[in-house]
Amino acid sequence: MDESKLKEGSCKYHMIGGDGPNSYAQNSEYQKQLLVSAEELIHELIDKHLDLENPPFDPQNTFKIADFGCSIGPNAFFAIENIIAAIVNKYKSNQNKNPNHPIPEFQIFFNDLVDNDFNTLFTNLPTARKYFVAGVPGSFHGRLFPKSTLHFAHCSTALHWLSRVPEAVAKRGSTAWNKGKIHYSGAGEEVKEAYAGQYREDMEVFLNARGEELVDGGLMVLVLIGFRDGVLCSDSSIGGVFDILISCLQDVANMGKISEEKVDSFNLPFYYPSPSELKGLIEANGLFNIERMAELGAPMRRNPDAQVLTSHLRAVIEGLIEEQFGDGIVEELFTIYLERFAKSPALLDDRCWKETNYFVFLKRKPSFPIGESLL
Amino acid sequence: MDESKLKEGSCKYHMIGGDGPNSYAQNSEYQKQLLVSAEELIHELIDKHLDLENPPFDPQNTFKIADFGCSIGPNAFFAIENIIAAIVNKYKSNQNKNPNHPIPEFQIFFNDLVDNDFNTLFTNLPTARKYFVAGVPGSFHGRLFPKSTLHFAHCSTALHWLSRVPEAVAKRGSTAWNKGKIHYSGAGEEVKEAYAGQYREDMEVFLNARGEELVDGGLMVLVLIGFRDGVLCSDSSIGGVFDILISCLQDVANMGKISEEKVDSFNLPFYYPSPSELKGLIEANGLFNIERMAELGAPMRRNPDAQVLTSHLRAVIEGLIEEQFGDGIVEELFTIYLERFAKSPALLDDRCWKETNYFVFLKRKPSFPIGESLL
C-alpha cells in the first residue's frame, strides 16, 4: 500500500470525470455493449459455478462484490446489477432444496484509481438499488481489500491499462527506445517485448492480489480487449488509431506548441494480449481455475462514426495527454484528430476491426487443496 | 435506501470541500482538538471493553471500523489512527495470554453524505497507512452497512446535524412557525419542542441502524456538542452566533438582495442535547450499554479569534446558505458577519462558551441475551 509509488505511476490514468460532452460517462457506449453481450454468459456461469454449500457463501454473511476499474458509472451499475440478479436467481433456485438458505445482503465495492471522479460516481448511483455501496480508491495493481473478504470480482475493459509505461521504452539509448512511436503497435520486437514483460508482471500482481482478496471458491469475471493469436496490433483499428494520433502529435510539435522530445518520450500504457497469452499467464499464476474463455461480440463496428470514436478516444486518453503535454493542446489535438480520422476510410472499414473482446470466467482454487489441511 | 428522499432532505448538508482557505479541511481545528482530548479515554475504554474472546472479534476476520460523518479529512484520519493504535495495543497485550491470536487486518469505512467531497478525502489519505480504505456515501440517518459487519463505529461532531429542519418550524401558520429566527435558540417552546422531536426521531434511527450494523459486543464512540442540563442555547456562544447571523441575513434582505420570505423560512438543522436527554434516548433505544459518558475539554475557547471563528462557521454552513439563498450573497454575508462578530465582545468572553463537548462510549448488547438463544 505504498500510495506514493502508485500516484507517481498513475496520476492521470483515469477517465474524464463529470457528466459533460467529453466525459467518459457520455462516451462509453462501446463498453456498455460489451457488458450487454456478456449478460447471459454471466447468468449461465454463476448458476453453474457458484457453490452455495461452500461455507464462505453462507447467506448469513454479506455477499461482497467488487468492480475493479469502475470509472464513474453508469456501466459499472449495469454490470453489478446483472451479477446480483444472477446470484439472487441462484439463491432462489437453491431455496427449493434448502428453504433455510435465505438470500444474503449485498455489499458492492466500486474501485478505481485515487484520481477517479468518485463524487460523480456516488451522485449517479441508482436510487432504487438493493445493495450497500462503498468506493475503494487505489490501483488494482496491488492489494485493495483484506484477505478473503470478497465473493465476486469483476473487471471490464480495464486490464489493458498497464501499471506504467515500461521504463526502457521511454529511455533514450535503450535498445527498446520507442522514438517516433507512442505504442508497440508497428514498433520493433524489443519494444513489444518490453510491453509484454510489463503486462506479465502486472497480471501476476493483479491475480495474486485478487487471489488473496477472494474467498475460496470466489468467482471472477474479466472482460478485456485482445487480438486473436497471430493478429498484429499494427494491422488493426487500434494500431490505425495510434498511427493517426502520433501523426497529429507530430503536427502539433511542428507548430512549435510541444517539444519533439516530449513526443518521443510519450508512450501509451496499453497492452492487448492474445487468448493463448492470457491463458498462459492465468495458468502460470495457478490461483484460479479457468471455467470459461469466450469471444464477445464486437459492438459499434458496423458503420462506425468518426465523431463518436474520436470522443471515445478522448474520454479515455485526455488525462494521459494532459499529463505529458499540459492541457493547452487538447482541443487542437482532437480537432486535428477528428479531421484526419474521418479521412481514413480504411479505419471505417469492418475488416480493420481485428481486435476481439474476451470474456474470462475464473474460480478461486481452494487455498488448501482438498486433503492437504488434514496432513 | 431511498436515496431520492435523502437527497431531497440533505443536498447541501455537507462541509465545504477542497483544500482552499474556506474549506472545512482548513477550518476544523476545533474538531481536531476535541479528538485530541478524547485520545486517552479511547485507549482506556478500548482496553477495558474490547472483548477479544468474543467470536465476532476473531482476528481471522478483518477488523472493520466506520467513521460516520467523516467529512474530507484530515481529522477523520487522526481519529481512526488513534482507534487502530488502541485496538492493536489490546491485541498485543492479549498475545501474552494467547500467542495464536494475531493482530487482524483493518478495513476502514469513511462515511459522509453523497455530496461530500470524497475526491478530496481520497486524495488526502495518509500514504503510509496500515489499513484498507473504502468511502461510503449516504446519510447516517439510515442503514449504510450490511447486518453485523462493523466492529467499531465512530462519530465526532456530526450528530448535532438533524436529518432535516422540522417541518412545522418553516411552515407559516403552524404554532411552531419560527418567523424572524433561524434556530430554536431564543425561540418559543413549540419551536424547541419541534427540534427536540426531530432529534429524538433521528437518534432513534441512528441507533437502530448502528445497532444492526455492529456485531454483538461492537463498540461505538460519539463525540458531540450539547449543553449541561439547565443551560439554554440562547445564553451561549452558539446562540450568540446565530443571533448575529440572523441580523446579517436581515441586513442582506433590507438591501433587497434576498427576500424576507426566504429569511423567514430559513432554519438551521442543528440540535444540541443535554447529557440527561442524550442518556435518556440511548437507554430508551435499548440496543447499547453506556460504558462511559464524559465531558471533553473546551478547545479554542481561550482568546477566540473573530476571523478564525467566522471561517469555521462559514466552512460548516456555506452549503446551507447557498441552498436557501443561492451563492450570490455568501461573500457579502460573511464579510458583514465578521465585522459584527468582532464588535461583539460578549461573544469573545469565556463566560459565553456554555456549550460542552460530550464523549460517549457505547457497547452493542448481545442480540440474544445470554441463555435466550438456547431456548
Mean pLDDT of chain A: 88
Task: Count every helix of chain A, treating DSSP H or I runs of 4 or more residues as helices.
Answer: 10
Biggest chain contact: A-B, 33 and 33 residues
Oligomer: homodimer
Shape of chain A: globular
CATH class of chain A: Alpha Beta
Number of domains of chain A: 1
Major sheet description of chain A = 7 strands, mixed
Low-pLDDT runs of chain A: 1-11, 370-375
Distance between the termini of chain A: 34 Å
One letter per element, helices H and strands E, the order of chain A comes to HHEHEHEEHEHHHEHHE
Strand percent estimate of chain A? 15-25%
Rg over CA atoms of chain A: 21 Å
Tally of DSSP β-strands of chain A: 7
CATH-assigned homologous superfamily of chain A: Vaccinia Virus protein VP39
Determine the CATH topology of chain A.
Rossmann fold
Strand order of the largest sheet of chain A: 3-2-1-4-5-7-6
Helix-strand makeup class of chain A = alpha/beta
Bin the helical content of chain A: 40-55%
Architecture per CATH nomenclature, i.e. the level-2 architecture of chain A: 3-Layer(aba) Sandwich
Q: Which helices and strands, and how do they pair?
A:
The structure is a homodimer of 375-residue chains.
Chain A: H1 3-10, H2 29-49, E1 63-68, H3 75-97, E2 106-112, H4 118-123, E3 132-137, E4 150-156, H5 189-213, E5 214-227, H6 237-254, H7 260-264, H8 275-285, E6 288-296, H9 306-325, H10 330-342, E7 355-364
Helix pairs in contact in A: 2-3, 6-10, 9-10
Keywords (chains A, B): Magnesium, Metal-binding, Methyltransferase, Transferase
Pfam family, one (chains A, B): Methyltransf_7
Organism (chains A, B): Buddleja alternifolia
